[in-house]
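Exercise: predict the fold of this chain.
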Amino acid sequence: MPKRMMTGRVKSDKMSKTRVVEIARLVKHPKYKKFYRDRTTCYVHDENNESGEGDTVQIIESRPMSKKKRWTLVKVIEKSSAVDVAAMRAARRLEDARKAEVAASSGSDKVEAKAAEEQTAETPAAE
């Protein structure tokens, strides 16, 4: 019997070498004949951690590797283009903090320079 191959979207990549892949499908209701969306969740072995959340991947059936893991990653079909907004905001805050620190340090240098100028200006006038 040949091994089944499926295509799905990575739902979670929080585990090391394991991905949770969701396979979406349309199913026809036996009585009402209406199509509805259904999904299957598979635990997939990803040896090199090459897939990420939101990626479209191709998986193949394999031997049981743990209690729930029975699939192996074949290839990443499409990388996700989703943007991690929280990471972008954190990077922006860090950049703003660095700019403020640089401005504060250069501002204190200017204050020290003005104080030195005032001191040198007062010295000849006092003589």
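Check your answer against the key: Helices lie at 85-126.
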